[in-house]
Specification:
Rossmann fold; Single alpha-helices involved in coiled-coils or other helix-helix interfaces; 9% strand; binds 6-phosphogluconic acid; 474 residues; two-stranded antiparallel ribbon; N-(1-d-carboxylethyl)-l-norvaline Dehydrogenase, domain 2; 56% helix
């Protein structure tokens, strides 16, 4: 019996995806550059061994798979992907499908897609979210490629994906780079989500002087309510954990310097290219960058006399409620931005991205899965969020309830000196978005003053200039 699908690259993610596929009753042919890793993988597969076909050359791999052959490559993003595609070209034939399941930049995916088209082969850029655990037991899968290529792999991918109730969290989202673009925005939102959680943690730790265990309990409580989500759940778990070496809470022995591999930054770059504000995501990326310059921050702390964070006094229960609602409101604004970026990209790249489907396949399996995504799926399904998530009736109701808390928390945090870049960006975005009359009339006047750029008059057609007189014109 021929294998249904192939996989190259038996690192953690690749191995887990392969085991997941085997467990769902599909034969899978696997290949790794180092032979010993392939053998070790098959050895470790236990009872799933019978569904795995180890291959020791690309020729062997191609011969083992039922045509048209779908082959997942799970290698390091970047050059290794191009090298792997080049090597596969020699052994594959018409209609075979190369699937890049890594975190590729969608622009690379579009390039690879067009490079392969015409060669008879086709390419799928597949976003996979859920970390190692997800890959093994059910990730969220975002596919970009031709519809025909999707049909060839649909059965396997829906089988191995996470399920929300009975619905698979895998879908075809559009051609060429659509899947990897959506995964990138997923990660951008993931950055914003994580940053806002960290900001709230900062207020609890420094403003209220709470310890990790106590903060963990707060998050655990929130996870049972409207903030219910994977990231809140793991935050509670992380805060409860102790370091075996020192006996201290783990969070207290971890250096406050965040890493990043690029997807957050790409979301922000693309948002800027498209002219769509994604300020909460930008703030989250910038916060990671600032976190990484620890030495400089320590020097600045000295230079400014260790102002620290002042203690927050007052009704603690009321403050905790505000913090919960502030996080909720900030999160809504960040998602509104992420979805707006996707809708801009959808037009720009002619993808016709299905927003309700995207919200649906993010309800389980992926890192940002949450109760709120179910509400978003409903809102997009009902068409109420087509301009912006903030205009969906359900979200208008939620924001009306939550924004006063976000306002109070941002104000309070600013007063005591606890940085809240993502939460405050989210608030500023919301306030600007809901302001029918803004302040850019002044900017237009300034532009006209120094550069004669012209402005529109209220209620009149055409371009006008101001009565600036001498001194105008820069
Ligand atoms: C996921 C995650 C994952 C990503 C990391 C790391 O959806 O499973 O987004 O794909 O690689 O979370 O991202 P950073 O290293 O940039 O934080």
């Amino acid at each position: 019996e021929k294998a249904e699908i192939g996989l190259i690259g038996l690192g953690t993610m690749g191995s887990n995806l392969a085991l997941n596929i085997a467990e769902h009753g599909h034969h899978i042919a696997v290949f790794n550059r180092t032979r010993s890793r392939t053998d070790a993988f098959v050895e470790s597969a236990g009872s799933l061994k019978d569904s795995i076909v180890p291959c020791y050359s690309l020729e062997e791999l191609a011969a083992a798979i039922r045509p048209p052959r779908p082959i997942i490559i799970m290698v390091l993003a970047g050059k290794p992907v191009d090298e792997q595609i080049a090597a596969l070209r020699g052994v594959l034939s018409n209609n075979d499908i190369v699937i890049d399941a890594g975190n590729a930049n969608f622009r690379d995916t579009m390039r690879r897609f067009s490079e392969l088209s015409g060669s008879g082969l086709t390419f799928i850029g597949m976003g996979v979210s859920g970390g190692e655990e997800g890959a093994r037991h059910g990730p969220s899968i975002m596919v970009g490629g031709t519809e025909d290529s999707w049909k060839r792999v649909e059965k396997v991918l829906t089988a191995i994906s996470a399920k929300f109730k009975d619905e698979p969290c895998a879908a075809w989202l559009g051609t060429d780079g659509a899947g990897h673009f959506v995964k990138t925005i997923h990660n951008g939102i993931e950055y914003a989500d994580m940053q806002m959680i960290a900001e709230i943690y900062g207020i609890l730790r420094d403003g209220l002087g709470m310890g990790p265990k106590e903060i963990g309990k707060v998050f655990d409580g929130w996870n049972k309510g409207r903030l219910n989500s994977y990231l809140i759940e793991i935050t509670a778990k992380v805060l409860a954990a102790d370091d075996p070496k020192t006996g201290k809470p783990v969070v207290d022995i971890i250096l406050d310097r965040a890493g990043q591999k690029g997807t957050g930054k790409w979301s922000v770059i693309e948002a800027q290219q498209l002219g769509i504000p994604a300020t909460a995501i930008e703030a989250a990326v910038a916060a990671r960058v600032l976190s990484s310059i620890k030495d400089e921050r320590q020097a600045a702390e000295k230079a400014y006399g260790n102002i620290g964070v002042a203690k927050i006094s007052g009704d603690k229960a009321a403050l905790l409620k505000d913090l919960e609602l502030a996080l909720f409101a900030g999160k809504i604004a960040a998602y509104a931005q992420g979805f707006a970026v996707m809708s801009g990209a959808s037009k720009e790249f002619n993808w016709n991205l299905p927003m309700p489907t995207i919200a649906k396949i993010w309800r389980a399996g992926c890192i940002i899965r949450s109760q709120m995504l179910d509400t978003m799926a409903e809102a997009f399904g009902a068409g109420g969020a087509s301009t912006n998530l903030l205009m969906a009736p359900a979200f208008i109701t939620m924001m009306k309830e939550a924004h006063p808390s976000l306002r109070r928390i941002v104000a309070r945090a600013s007063e005591v000196g606890s940085p809240v870049p993502a939460l405050s960006s989210a608030l500023a975005y919301f306030d600007s978005y809901r302001q029918g009359r803004g302040t850019s009339n002044l900017i237009q006047a300034q532009r006209d003053f120094f550069g004669a750029h012209g402005f529109e008059r209220i209620g009149e057609q055409g371009a006008f200039h101001g009565p600036w007189g001498s001194g105008a014109g820069g």
